[in-house]
Amino acid sequence: MGVIIALVVSFGALIIGFLGEGGHVGALISWTPALIVFGGTIGSSMLAFPVSDLKKIGRIMKSGLLYEQADLNQLVAYFYELSVKSKKDGLLSLESEVALNPDADPFLKKGIQSLVDGESHESISDSLGNEIDRIEERHKIGAGIFNSAGGTAPTMGIVGTVLGLVHVLEGLAEADMSSLGKSIASAFLATLYGLASANLIFLPIGNRLKINNQKELLEKELILEGILLLEKRVSPKTIQEKLMGFLNGDEKDEKNGSNTTVAKEVVSAT
């Protein structure tokens, strides 16, 4: 929803501002400059990146734009509970966490299953670490494609404008003033399409993928650290303290605030 709102606000501001200057929407629509800009940008991306990467762009956009980071405070609390349970009933008791949570994060389920299967510390670290590397590579590819398109689109817009002006100047001697203005306006639409698509679509999406990459990697690294600490049979309190290191200042304050609230409830109850 945030992505949709952002697109509506940005393009809506441009169109409403144009209408406020006395323009009309029809003047902003032309298929020839759109073909030059977007066709040239797509062709450039196909040359810059393997087709196998471009085929993944839909999945990359879905996973990157719609990604929502899990509540890290809840993850810390979850690993605390897992530690208490494993200390009491053994690591095999965690198998129910995999079976009873079909909608849980596959990365988390894989880590818990590795514990239940009795895999070594090094094996778990290598397996989950490799998966984190693949996630990072996926985001890098997606961000790279959109950043490349964001750099190409304005250039293709200028190319489209130059092509349009070449056509205008070629027929300048025979053109009348009424058609001349429309031809020049159509030529500059290519620049508008290039700049608008780069700064309102391609570059923002590329930047969003980078930010979500950092969030997802932090979440997965916290899970990996929690799994490895469970494998070492570290105490629940130590696991909580170590995983708290993944939280930023606001999240730590929120965690401390919730702990304080719980403590007050206990005191008042007694």
TrEMBL record:
The chain crosses the membrane at residues 32-52, 144-169, 184-205. It holds the Pfam family MotA_N. Signal peptide: none annotated. It is a multi-pass membrane protein. It is found in: Cell membrane; Membrane. The keyword Phosphoprotein does not apply. Belongs to the exbB/tolQ family. Keywords: Cell membrane, Flagellar rotation, Membrane, Protein transport, Transmembrane, Transmembrane helix, Transport. InterPro entries: MotA-like, MotA_ExbB_proton_chnl, MotA_N. Its main location: membrane. Residues 105-220 form the MotA/TolQ/ExbB proton channel domain. This is Motility protein A. Residues 4-90 form the Motility protein A N-terminal domain. The keyword Protease does not apply. One of its GO terms (cellular component) is plasma membrane.
